[in-house]
Each structure stands twice: as structure tokens, then as C-alpha cells.
Amino acid sequence: MLSETKLKVLKEITSGFSREEAIWASGYLAGLAGTSAALTELPPRQSDNAAPVKKITLVYGTETGNSKKLATELAGIAKKKGIQVKLGDLSQYKPKDLAKEEYFFLVISTQGEGEPPILAKKFYEYIHENELNLSNIKFGVLALGDSTYPQFCKTGEDVDSRFEVLGAQRIIPLKRCDIDYEDDAHRWLEHIFEVVQNAVVSSSPAAAPKAAAGRKKYRGKIAAIINLNDITSDKETYHIEVESEEPIAYRPGDALGIIPFNPKSVVDEIIALTGIAAEKQIQTSKYTGSAEELLRRNLNISYLLKTTVAQYAQITGHDIPETRLSLLDLLRIYPVKNAEEFEEVIKVLTIQAPRLYSVSSSPEAHGDSEIHITVAKSEFFINDKKQKGLCSGFLSEFKEEEEIEFYIQEAKHFKLPETGKDVIMIGPGTGVAPFRSFLWERDALGAEGRNWLFFGDRNFVSDFIYQSEFQDFLKTGALTNLDLAFSRDSAEKIYVQHRLQQKASEVFQWLEGGASLYVCGTKDPMSKDVEETLLGIIQHEGKRSEEEAKNYLEELELSGRYAKDVY
After folding, report:
1. Taking the alpha carbons of 68, 74, 77, 79 in that order, is the dihedral positive or negative?
2. Which of 152, 339, 387, 478 could tie 473 with a disulfide, CB 3.0–4.6 Å?
3. Which of 394, 438, 429 is nearest to 258 (CA)?
4. What CA–CA distance (Å, rounded) separates 504 from 549?
5. CA-CA distance, 339 to 540, in Å (whole number)?
6. Which three-class secondary structure state does DSSP give residue 241?
7. Regarding beta strands 403-409 and 379-382, do their DSSP bridges make them parallel or antiparallel, or are they unpaired?
8. H or E element: which one contains 507?
9. β partners of residue 282
10. Element housing 542 (H / E)
């Protein structure tokens, strides 16, 4: 009981309380007393456990046993937290069960020169060889590897990017782990708990899942195709504008997907070598059409998977070592007996995979009836013979007014922040494509946030693509800072990571001020060199240990302030 004096004071304090204030005060006093007294006036509070805990699937792909050991340990921890876990081995997992999954997490290692574990190859090849609809899945990947190897965590990276291409929603960023993986793995699991439990609390019975929609395909005409490099350059980088009669639904950060045709000259040579009739109708697992049409438009003939080569060997009876070759080279070295045998070969060829190019236009600035991409023509030599990249060669040969079919691949993790936030963009070469989109969009919206671009290439005179646009953005203030690195213009090669290091103090100040950080371009070595430089900047400028710097960058990634689009 209160003394008379204290009771008087309490009455004076509470006499003017509203109902809500009285409820709050009663709860506050109950808390001070350390009781769980029922507050009859308090509206019922929804328990965090009111909804059933989500069930997750956790699968592993292993060769040495590390992934299995780790996944089993993580599953045990999750179960103790009250989360139902279906633990599975990818060697036993039925790919058709993907259609039933909702929360799907993978722990997978990388072997040799970027190869998947032997026991996970079937699953790995299935998702890469088939056009699946995984829009029902929310996923995350924990990649195990050894950084002393050049293809560190490549299998995990491949699976992560392939799931996104197939429509799955990445709800936690890809986590790459070195040989000392325990702490990183446990943090990854904690983030799963956080995401899944938040989804439980926020879910509503009325919010029924959307029916899976098929991929929307657009038809358009090439409105412009321009080589952005000077005639003195040994590179060809094409700015391609496509116009469509129907509105194109896309946002900066998205990618444009194209399924390229195989070169007609190659298809003609294959038909001549095998003796098959070009008009012969053939039914494969996915398509039915003439031999010529299938080889030209639908099937991969440029770089066959090892499994396809093995199937070819089985059909033809040749003893072929494990390798990857083009179909034309395979036919030259290990010819088929006749057209009938080649028909069987056609039936085991995988479908032509789409190629994705970052969108370099802005719907706000350029309208929704046109879309731009930036394509570097890939050229290389095999046995002293010059070869072209399949899709970049296909695109570079288009003429204005020719028609093209495409679709939009939404990039869920590579999006602009609010207009008031600052942005740091690192994109050498064609990695600058999405940042052209970002700048046009932010300029059109009148975004208050600052924009800082790091761009690099070989030579200033011949390879500074979109130079006049970026200089105009600088003049108008849409681009706050522009730092350039041209590697061949000086005796010492200068790359974007060197410019980052030179501006270390200011870069860190921007990050501390809430800036979002984006990296786009080649994965190896560019993105790895940039990330090492960023870690060094955080460590030095932020007075942090190596481990604290890694955690800092990881937190940026988890919060959506550090995003990479690398290839």
C-alpha cells in the first residue's frame, strides 16, 4: 500500500491522464514491480509466437564433408530456436520439389577450378540447364571455399545468381566463407532467424500469394546502335537503343534479357557435316521445329556442358575425354555416323540460355517506350582462330529498324535508395551501364542526394564511354564527383581501386553519412580488388580491426547499402 503522501502525489499526477496515458502508466508500474499483472484495460498484444514458426529447407552440397557438418550444426541451432528445418543432401534432393519450397537455403562448397562438389553436380546442372519458375522461393546461399584458389566460392556464386535469374527472391545476401567459416556461418544463420521471424510477424492471412506470372516478353526495333569507342581503340562497345510500341516495365538496376541466335554460318556447316535435312522436323524436350530452326534459335551449340559431351559420346560410341567443346568442333573431331544419329544428338542438346545486360537508360528520363543497354563485343582466340562472344556478336551485328525480342529481369538487390540519400558508384568499362541509368533517373527526379562515380578503362581518348554525358552531369551538379582511372595512359597502371584509395577519407565520410555503395563489372579481379580496398579504407579511416572492417561491410550489405552486380 502507498503512504497517504505518495497516494496524494500519484492522484495529482494521474488526474489529467487520458485513457491511453493511463494504460501506459499502469504497464510501466507493473514492469517496475517485476510482475505480469493482467492489465484489463490494455488491448490484447499479439504474441511474437502467435503465428506458427515458418518451416525452412536447408540443403548442402559437399565433397569433403565440411558443408554437411556445418549444415547439420546450423539445423540443430535453428531447431532449438523453434524453427522447423528440413535438412537435405543435394545428392538426394529431388529438383522437382523446388516447386513446393518457400524458404530455401543452401550451404555449398567449391572444388578444384570452380567446380561444384561431385555429389551436387546433378542439382547444379539441373538448375542451369532448365528454364524453371522459382518465383515461389525465398532463398539464401552460404558459399564455402578456399581463398588461395582463384575460383573462390564460385559454385555458391553461380547458384545464387542462377536462382535470381529463375525468379527466386534473395532475402539474405550471398555469404562467402573462407576455410575459417564458423563465425561467418553463425552470423548468416542469425540473419535467417531475423528475416524469417519478421516475415511471420508481418504476414497477414488476407495477403494471399500472387499467382506466378510467366515471363513477359517484349518485341522492339533497334532505334540506334553506336560504337562508343574511338576508331583508335582495340575494343568495340555498343550503345543500343530499343523502342517498343507497348510500355516497358522496368526500373534502374534491372537487366534486359536476350536469347541470342547461333551464327547462321556455323549452323550451315553443322548441317553440311552431318547430312541432316535442314527442314527435318524434330521434337526435343522443350521445342519442336526443323533441324535448322532448333540449331539456330533454340539450342546451345557454342560451348557444350561436360554432361552433354558425355551423352554425345554415348550416342556416337566415341571414347571422348571429359571436356567442353562447341558442337561444331565435336563433330569435326568425333563425327556422327549418319543423319539419324545426329538427330539423337540434337535431342540431348541443352536449351539456349538467355544473356543479361544491365539497363543503361531511365524510365523517368527516357520514357517507358524505349530502353538502352551497353554491350562490349567479346572477341578471343581458340587455336589461333578469332572467335566472337555469342550474344555480344549477335547484338553488335544488328541494324537500325531490325526487330528484337527481349524480357526484363528484375534486380531485387540492386536498386536506388531514397532520393535524399548519397550514392557511390564504382563501374569500370561496361560496368558503368547501370550507373548511367542511376544518374539519368536521379537527375530526372531532382534527387537531393549526392552522386559519386568511379569509372575506368584503358585509354582516356579512345575508351571514355559516355564522356560528354558525364561531363554534362558534372556541370549541372547531378554528378557531384567523378574519379577516372585509365590503365594504359601511364607507365604505372591505374585502376578504380587506386582512385578509391586516394579518396579514402572522403569515401569513408560518405559511408558514415549513410551513402549507398554500388559495384558493377567483372568479378575477378575488379570486384575483389575493390572490396579489398574498401576493407582497407574502413579499417584505416574507421580505426577498426580487420574483423571489424569485414563486419562493417557485411552490415552495409545486409542493410541494402552495399550491392554488387558482377560477372
Report:
1. negative
2. 478
3. 394
4. 14
5. 66
6. strand
7. unpaired
8. helix 504-512
9. 289
10. none
Cα–Cα dist 331/443, whole Å: 54
Q: Residue 434: which of 405, 466, 462, 458 has the closest Cα?
A: 466
Cis peptide before 525, with omega less than 30 degrees from 0? yes
Grid cell, residue 270, equals 553443322
How many CB atoms within 10 Å of residue 133?
Answer: 15
Per 3-state DSSP, what percentage of the chain is helix, strand, and coil (rounded to 5)? 40, 20, 40
Residue 99: count of CB within 10 angstroms of its CB: 12
Task: Identify any residues that bridge with 15 across adjacent strands, giving them in sequence order.
Answer: none
CA–CA separation, 545 vs 59, rounded Å? 33
Q: How far apart are CA 69 and CA 435, in angstroms?
A: 41
Per-residue pLDDT tens digits for 169-204: 998 889 988 877 888 888 888 888 887 776 644 444
Stated as kind and residue range, the H or E segment containing 423 is strand 423-426
Exposed (0-12), middle (13-18) or buried (19+): which is 536, by Cβ within 10 Å?
Answer: middle
More confident: 295 or 6: 295
Q: Is the pLDDT of residue 512 over 70?
A: yes
Q: Tell me, what amino acid is at 363? A: P
Helices (H), 259-338: 264-274, 291-293, 306-316, 327-333
Contact 61, 108 (CB under 8 A): yes
Judged by DSSP in three states, 472 sits in helix
The three cell numbers of residue 407 are 524480357
Q: For the chain, count helices (H), then strands (E).
A: 20, 21
Say if CB 352 and CB 299 are below 8 A apart: yes
Q: What span, in angstroms and rounded, lies between the C-alpha atoms of 153 and 188?
A: 16
Q: Are 57 and 104 a contacting pair, CB within 8 Å? A: yes
The per-residue pLDDT for 31 is: 44
Predicted TM-score (pTM) of this structure: 0.67
What is the per-residue pLDDT across 458-497, written as a single tens digit (0 to 9) for each? 999 999 999 999 999 999 999 999 999 999 999 899 999 9
What pLDDT was estimated at residue 181?
81
pLDDT of residue 3 exceeding 80, the answer is no
Among residues 478, 419, 445, 427, the alpha carbon closest in space to that of 363 is found at 445
**Residue 502 has what DSSP assignment?**
H
pLDDT (tens digit per residue) in 98-135: 988 999 999 999 887 778 988 899 999 999 988 888 99
Residue 246 and residue 289: Cα distance in Å, rounded?
A: 29
Q: Cell for 49?
A: 509466437
User: Per residue in 206-224, pLDDT tens?
Assistant: 333 343 345 789 999 999 9
Q: How deeply is 420 buried, as exposed, middle or buried, from its count of CB atoms within 10 A (0-12, 13-18, 19+)? A: exposed
- The one-letter amino acid code at 433 reads A
Q: Cell numbers of 295, please?
A: 540449331
CB 189 within 8 A of CB 78: yes
Q: In the beta sheet, which residues pair with residue 517? A: 424, 562
> Which residues does residue 141 pair with via DSSP β-bridges, in sequence order?
106
Please tell me the least confidently modeled range out of 42-51, 70-79, 463-472. 42-51
Q: Which conformational region is residue 429 in: left (phi greater than 0), alpha (psi within -120 to 50 degrees), or beta?
A: left
* Contact (CB, 8 A) for 138 and 171: yes
For residues 242 and 460, what is the distance between their CA atoms, to the nearest angstrom? 28
